[in-house]
Amino acid sequence: MVLLHVKNGDESQFLLETTGSISIEDLTQEVTKIYNGRLKVHRVCAEIETLAEHGIFLPPNMQGLTDEQIEELKLKDEWAEKCIPSGGSVFKKDEIGRRNGHAPNEKMKQVLKATVEEAKALISKKQVQATVCVNKDMVKDALDQLRGAVMIVYPMGLPPYDPIRMEFEDKEDLSGTHAALEVIEEPEAQLWWAAKELKRTKQLSDYVGKNEKTKIIVKIQKKGQGAPAREPVISGEEHKQMILFYHRRQEELKKLEENDDDSFLDSEWADSHALKRHFHGVKDIKWRPK
């Protein structure tokens, strides 16, 4: 199996196992799906964290309004009575004005938060350091875990306009958000290796050879961005180790230079005749002119 270390820019994303015989077309689709899937998991996790703190999303026409404005306009959240968390709610006002403030109780809140941590760990960038590969099934499992936790806490479901529900139903609208800039649509995706674009009409083996034990760094980015920056000859960690070695070597050389100093010969302990004079009783004799 060929091991791909997928990056976006200089930032590690995940490891992926594949075969040299895979077409670049299929590989691009797979890498892009995992890349975007991980972004979706992080978006859902962020929203579930606010769901645990402040309850469900307010209707779009009520978001950002004060209580007085809502009362004056006679607006009503029809989903508030339908979407009650299991075990009742605890009121915690959302200062941003996006959610209705009827948060789950502490027990249900912990269910949501624990699941968020598990889902994040499953597709974390730290998996690269642990040499754990990520695949489409792992991304799906993370989303399924999050979906299950939300169903436990909100058995009646979430409002159709809640971003969590929209993410689960693949109806999310990211236009005008920073998240939209991160997503790479599959037709716009390009894979690069060693400053060469991997053409979709070829196979991976056309670039890396027939060795199935190859490990390469592949970068994913949008079309039209040009060739990504080359990988440094040495990694950041290797550079740190080299600096540390150089510093230690300098300290050792400094100590050796200090040891070359022969001023210690004037010390009493360096006198080879000290013992003889001691037994002759002529120790500490000082000569002075008359």
UniProtKB/TrEMBL annotation:
Any one of the GO CC terms: ciliary basal body
InterPro entries on file: CFAP298
Pfam families, A to Z: CFAP298
An example Gene Ontology biological process: cilium assembly
Signal peptide (residue range): none
UniProt record similarity statement: Belongs to the CFAP298 family.
Protein name as it appears in the record: Cilia and flagella associated protein 298
Organism: Podarcis muralis
